[in-house]
Amino acid sequence: MNLDTIQPRKRRAILVISPDELTRLEYTPQGNDLLLNEQVHLLVITDKVEGSLANKLESSGLLESGSLLIQNPYDPSDYASLDKASSTFALAKYFHFTTLCGLLGAREVTVEQIEVKTSKGKQLFRGSLDSLYAQGNIEGKNKTFEEMRNNLKIKSSFDGGPPDLEAADLHLRQYNLLNDIAMKSLIDQRKGSNPIKSRELTLSLSEESRKTLKVISDLKIPIYGDLQPQVEQAKKETYEFTLTIKVYF
């Protein structure tokens, strides 16, 4: 089946499965729930890859049997593997934010502080990014945290200029970010005869991805024995990334 013809809401998660495992699933307890799940699409691996989305997933190395892929909340044609979804989507929102600032005529965007918490209430880090890149207050080795640490930029610089309000609004609409108050208010404050020149704000990088990950909240995968523990771990320990950011126009 061509993935491009399937509505995005019906493929919020994609389970890549072999033809043999599909047959096995049909005769496995709890298999029927997975087969009838309205938000999880079972992508059966065949020799022929159809459609631009499937080709994109294949070229990204994601079409491996037994992989569970999560839809990017900002782009329904983009996916990440379950183990990288939290950090990948958090970084995606951060880069959308810096793009927005550029469209609004910013000269500089600086991340002053990052706070990382888990759903268990455990705080992994809270502090300035200077200490983050040195050592930071990190409780143990954490793969998701390391993904953020290695890819988050402390400072982004632009030439500056007048705000392109129409392009900024279009950017939020295109990437499903109109409900983010911090980003929407930044557009509003760049309007009029006396636009804002600097702003310090707190930006949640995880609000939208938490909603996306709810698709696996009741998911049971009675095949691929190593996958269900990953699902259970993702359900138990989700991440909240919060940034304190200064923007100069």
What keywords describe this structure?
37% helix; 249 residues; elongated; five-stranded antiparallel sheet
Describe this structure in words.
The structure is a single chain. This protein is α+β, with helices and mostly antiparallel strands. It is 37% helix and 24% strand. It has helices at residues 19-26, 31-35, 52-59, 85-103, 129-134, 143-151, 165-174, 181-189, 207-213, 227-236; strands spanning 13-17, 40-44, 68-72, 75-81, 108-118, 123-128, 155-157, 198-204, 239-248. The strands form 2 sheets. Strands 5, 6, 7, 8 and 9 form a 5-stranded antiparallel β-sheet that branches. The protein has a 4-stranded mixed β-sheet with strand order 2-1-3-4, with helices on both faces. Strand 5 and strand 6 form a beta hairpin. 29% of the residues are buried.
Structural class: alpha+beta
The shape, in one word, is: elongated
Helix content estimate: 25-40%
Main sheet properties: 5 strands, antiparallel
Uncertain segments of ≥5 residues (pLDDT<50)? 132-136
**Beta-strand percent range:** 15-25%
Overall number of strands: 9
Which assembly state applies to the chains in this document? single chain
| SSE string, helices as H and strands as E | EHHEHEEHEEHHEHHEHHE
Report, as a whole number of angstroms, the end-to-end distance. Answer: 48 Å
Task: Give the helix tally.
Answer: 10
Q: What average pLDDT do the residues reach?
A: 86
Using only CA atoms, what is the Rg? 20 Å
